[in-house]
Amino acid sequence: MTDEEMKEKVIEELKKIYDPEIPVNIYDLGLVYNVHCWTDALTKLKKCSIKMTLTSATCSMSEVIVDLVRSISYRIEGLEEVDVHLVFDPPWSQENMSDEAKLQLGLL
Question: Residue 53: its pLDDT value, please?
Answer without folding.
Answer: 95
